[in-house]
């Protein structure tokens, strides 16, 4: 019995070492930019680069727009399927996992074919159009994760009862979605949003083929020109991913309507005149 109980612990430790040892080695290497001493010179060099500031800003904005569009697309769809079209749910689930099967290269060339020169909507001919295609690509890539998160969140609540209660109070279907459904699946939306952000931030294929100044192609370019800065960027990317996973766990464990931070009680002092 002791051997059986010890076996999962050994597997867990080995799996942890498998992931942590390369990360620790990468972090140590990123500190060796100055010969003979450990320093954060590589990180300082990265943050002082104007290109880094531009690409990280572009990626953050594009990821946030993709999160908003993904939530606006997935939440009403999952709500309507669960409420009115339960027989269509297997088909919707199949469609939602297609981005995991179809390579990103195929997706990009499909965009270029449909929205290229001679198209009724030539988005590839302008910078704004390319940015729109990039955001749409992010939404498509994150669709399996966003849909699964939202669908599982809706499975935990009684959609039909909440809808009937809202309609009995005179709420329209749109107001029901905005004021009732969204708050009750807030944790699921936040979980999907963090996963979308992590995927979009490091995406390379779509961003590179659309020639957008984002974080993924920047990391590859830095890796071709420098030695220590790419290691620093890799460590920062891991750190950002872990932070978002922790935030996802924090928001996901909170009940609907619960405050993020507890309200502080401030005592009132009354000045007594002489």
From TrEMBL:
SUPFAM superfamilies (UniProt xref): MetI-like
Domain of life: Bacteria
Domain ABC transmembrane type-1: 52-248
Gene Ontology CC: plasma membrane
Major location (coarse): membrane
Membrane topology: Multi-pass membrane protein
Signal sequence region: none
UniProt keyword ATP-binding, yes or no: no
InterPro entries with a match to the protein in the record: MetI-like, MetI-like_sf
Protein's UniProt keywords contain Mitochondrion: no
TM helices/strands, residue ranges: 7-31, 51-79, 91-116, 128-147, 188-210, 230-251
CDD domains assigned to the protein according to its UniProt record, in alphabetical order: TM_PBP2
GO biological process: transmembrane transport
Compartments, record wording: Cell inner membrane; Cell membrane
Keywords of this entry: Cell inner membrane, Cell membrane, Membrane, Transmembrane, Transmembrane helix, Transport
Coiled-coil stretches: none
Cross-referenced PANTHER family: INNER MEMBRANE ABC TRANSPORTER PERMEASE PROTEIN YDCV
Protein's recorded name: ABC transporter permease subunit
Species annotation: Jiella flava
